[in-house]
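Database export, one record per block. Field names are fixed; values are copied verbatim from the stored entry.
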Amino acid sequence: MSKFAIESFSDCLRIEMRQWGVKVSIIQPGWYARATGIFGGHNDADLVSLTEGVWRNMSAECKRDYGREYFDAQVKELMNNRLKTSSDASPVLDAMVDALMAKRPKHRYLVGGFLNTVVLSYVNRFLPSWVTDYGFACAMSILYPTPAALIKKADDKK
C-alpha cells in the first residue's frame, strides 16, 4: 500500500470514527531514515553490502533493462540522501505522544524535513500533472543516467 493510500485511508477512518469518539491522527515524518536503520545500518559499508545483495538477487531481465550504471547511480543518490536524514527520532516520538495525549490532537503531524514533507508532498496536488511530471523528469535526467533498455530502444530507432 502506498503512503498516499494510507493517508487517504486514515482520513476516511478519522471521519467515520468521529461519531464513536475515536480520534485518528496521521504522523508524517520527514527524513528520519538513519534513526530507523532502514538503509541497512549507519555506515556506507552496510549500505553497499545491502545494495549488492539487491543487485545479486535481481533478475537477469531487470539487470539488463536498467544496467549497472543506472543501479550504481541510484545507490550513490541513496547514500547521499542517507546523510541528509536525521538520526534522532525524538521529534517523531514527541508527535506520537502528543497525538495520543492531547484532548484535541491534530489531524496531521508533519514532522521534520519541511521541503520533502510539506512542499513536495502537497505541491503536486495543486499543480497540473504535466508541470509536476516535467519537473520530476528533469530532476531524474540530471540525477540518474538513462536505463540501459531505453538507450537500446533509442539506438534501435536510429
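Remark 1: The chain has a mean pLDDT of 85.
Remark 2: The longest strand covers residues 26-29.
End of record.
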